[in-house]
Amino acid sequence: MANSINPFLPKIGTVLKVVQETPNIKSFQVVLNDQERMKSFRFEPGQAAQLSIFGVGEATFVINSPPTRMEYLQFSVMQAGEVTERIHQLKEGNPIGVRGPLGNWFPYEDMKGKDIYFIGGGIGMAPLRTLLLFMLDNRKDYGEITLLYGARSPQDLCYKEEVKEWEARDDMELILTVDREFPEWDKRVGLVPNVLKELAPSPQNKVAITCGPPIMIRFTLQALAELGFKDDQVITTLERRMKCGIGLCGRCNIGTKYVCIDGPVFSLAQLKELPPEL
Ligand SMILES: Cc1cc2nc3c(=O)[nH]c(=O)nc-3n(C[C@H](O)[C@H](O)[C@H](O)COP(=O)(O)OP(=O)(O)OC[C@H]3O[C@@H](n4cnc5c(N)ncnc54)[C@H](O)[C@@H]3O)c2cc1C
Ligand code: FES
Question: Ligand 2 centroid vs 84 CA: distance in angstroms?
């Protein structure tokens, strides 16, 4: 098969810019070295890629810049273990491997004309950022857009510059919360699912999209059910440890599904047909 491309072979990229988002999260803006490949690189909001540090290993990250802004691909990386520690050491100009796009994506076509309620926690804001920016770039296709975004403390909020822009926009609503009181914080205080219950959005013509730590997602799903959201109005993304990313190794399976090809995006209705995950 002389023409087949090895799916395990990363494309070589270069780090354009590094942004320190929080004490343990950095964003990396990456371009593929082959300009033609960069121009023809296609992905959908919600898809991920494996980033590799040569000689160390790969880890999965959502592409959190939208396909409507292709100057670079952005990844936000929370330091967790060896690979992420080495990614955090990268400087502008350093090489990095990119293998993707991987997985499915948010069903944004089905959401046209609906009100969108994003609920994010911590680094879980990364996939939501992609879809939010994509929708803001196609603003007329969607109804009201609301983002409820929470972190442990003010310094743990990602995308601080953009958060200011989102706050200033009159075509979306932003609600920020942190887990407890801080002297410099004059906005909401409380865990994301509790704030959601206080805000009590109506489920009428709405889609809720949530991503965050598993415990946040679990209580957010409960809160949405209490508010009357039906299972097919709720979308979430799952983080399962991956290896191949292309449905071959079986590392990421839940029941009959592979998170790397059937996910990471699932509706709550789809998740309820699988063995319990959250
Ligand atoms: C579809 C998808 C999208 C993701 N997007 C992002 C993203 O945008 N930003 C980001 O920071 N992370 C993201 N992750 C998680 C990221 O892949 C892991 O945190 C990363 O692989 C850890 O790499 P490591 O080798 O440094 O850590 P390791 O040394 O392998 O692990 C460190 C610790 O984290 C735990 N861990 C590692 N990977 C996972 C995982 N996937 N799920 C749960 N626990 C894990 C390990 O059990 C261990 O306790 C995503 C994962 C998936 C599957
Ligand atoms: S990561 Fe190998 S099958 Fe999903």
Answer: 19
Whether 63 contacts 41, CB under 8 Å? no
Distance, in Å, from the CA atom of 57 to the CA atom of 61, rounded to the nearest integer, reads 13
Q: Going residue by residue through the chain, which has 278 residues, state the pLDDT in tens, using 9 for 90 and above.
A: 444 688 899 999 999 999 999 999 999 999 999 999 999 999 999 999 999 999 999 999 999 999 999 999 999 999 999 999 999 999 999 999 999 999 999 999 999 999 999 999 999 999 999 999 999 999 999 999 999 999 999 999 999 999 999 999 999 999 999 999 999 999 999 999 999 999 999 999 999 999 999 999 999 999 999 999 999 999 999 988 899 999 999 999 999 999 999 999 999 999 999 888 77
Which pair of structure tokens corresponds to residue 70?
A: 């292709």
**Distance, CA of 269 to CA of 110 (rounded, Å):** 15
247 lines ligand 2 (CB under 6 A): yes
Backbone dihedral angles phi then psi of residue 190, each to the nearest 5 degrees: 145, 155
Beta strands per DSSP E along the chain: 11-22, 25-32, 48-53, 57-62, 73-78, 95-102, 115-121, 145-151, 173-178, 188-189, 206-211, 234-237, 253-254, 257-258, 265-267
Q: How many CB atoms lie within 10 A of CB 8?
A: 12
Give the residue among 15, 20, 21 at the shortest CA–CA distance from 163: 21
250 lines ligand 2 (CB under 6 A): yes
d(CA 183, CA 165): 23
pTM (predicted TM-score): 0.95
The response to whether residue 89 sits with its C-beta less than 6 Å from ligand 1 reads no
- Residue 190 near residue 165, CB atoms below 8 Å: no
Q: Which helix (H) or strand (E) holds 36?
A: helix 35-40
Residues whose CB is less than 8 angstroms from the CB of residue 109 and which lie 6 or more positions away in sequence, other chains included? none
